Amino acid sequence: MIPTIAAAARDIAAKKLSPVELTRDCLARVKALDPKLHAFIAVTEDHALTEARAAEARQMSGALCGPLDGIPFGHKDIYSTAGLATTAHSAQLRDHVPARDAFTVTKLAEAGVVLLGKLATHEFAFGGPSFDLPWPPARNPWDTERFTAGSSSGTGAAVAAGLVLGGTGSDTGGSIRGPAALCGIAGIKPTYGLCSRAGILPLAQSMDHAGPMAWTAEDCAILLQAMAGHDPADPGSADRPAPDLTGALNQPLKGRTIGVIRHFHERDNPVSAATLQGIEDTIRILRDAGCTIRDVTLPPLQEWNAAGWVALTAEAWAIHEHWMRERPELYGEFLRGRLALGGLLSAGDYVQAQRKRRELTRRAAAAMDGVDILLTAAQPGEAPKIREVPKWASLEKPNFTIPFNLTGWPALTICSGFGEHGLPVAVQLIGRPWQDDLVLATGHAVEQANGTRGRRPSVG
Description:
Shape: globular
Number of domains: 1
Order of helices and strands: HHEHEHEHEHEEHEHHEHHHEHHEEH
Mean pLDDT: 97
CATH superfamily: Amidase signature (AS) domain
Radius of gyration: 20 Å
Strand order of the largest sheet: 1-3-2-4-6-5-10-11-9-7-8
Strand content: 5-15%
Low-confidence stretches: none
CATH topology: Amidase signature (AS) enzymes
Number of helices: 15
Number of strands: 11
Largest sheet: 11 strands, mixed
């Protein structure tokens, strides 16, 4: 049985579980399953066992660093790791070895995680699923012919399959919440500024968020508690104390108001029957917990996507312009085309997108008056076939996640059930800025009631 982070932490603290044996079990799963999943760019077996032995020594001496000490873990391969290649899944950085760790990598190392390696991503967190890169795209462990979503593809696959107990992701338009949804795990995009992005390869700096992915909302809370904190090296990092994310997990929800953005998932981008059922089941659970349910109307999803994708693509072009001019052939075809689109945008386009962003955020804040949590879909349905994902999928239909990159509000995806093909479907829970604790507590309560956490994929 694959433990959650919370369960493993309790057993490690009670000296019922050896960090070394847990690490060996995960490494064995990597060896057996990753040839089918391609979740890892690099596996650091010797380093992992060294860290696991150090954790076990702390365990035996009663000096554990906390609930993450001895937990097998993986970093998305845009997180800088000193002395270990950070490639962004791209030939552009195939031999790039950073001199120092990202801020969040350091914080998680200090918390005692055991690093098993670097995890696959869409190229530079934007181009995928691509088949013309130095490494293949990650596959969905529920069905290896299916898509993981992106861009935190390897983390989604590795956590779902139990190769690691948790991992890092980044989210600029949904890159934590999309893979969490299609892979049947939990993933939170925290409030903008709660986690430093220093040392994480950027995509669109006004929309980039760093955050955790794990099997449960509780595990995400444990990870985010360790990742959060002010970092002067990141201009977007907020100089304020992190909330008590784990201590607030069991706060009562009675009396809270849940705002359902029905038009997002019923009209703007209609979801599958199973996804809609998962949303309705979640509403029932929250109503039974004493929450008041009401419908909330935001600007149409199409408006959010128009502003979001113009801003994101323009900022991505600004980051990659020099390589696009000097060595474009080292990008995969998907990313090269998406970046080129950014090069066709004008300064006026970008300014208008940011103006629209401010207007949309003001309207959303007004609509949330008297509402504690917003609820909508995270993905329209089950994972599609990986070979059938179109290059411009993000532009063909509006997605459910990018609105909250524009607002910077905390947003969590959790599994809400399973569809006709036996694949996960998901719900998205969104909160006010700096109420990440309430978002996680709401997700934790729903998971405890919906029965999805007892079902793992059988990789075949």
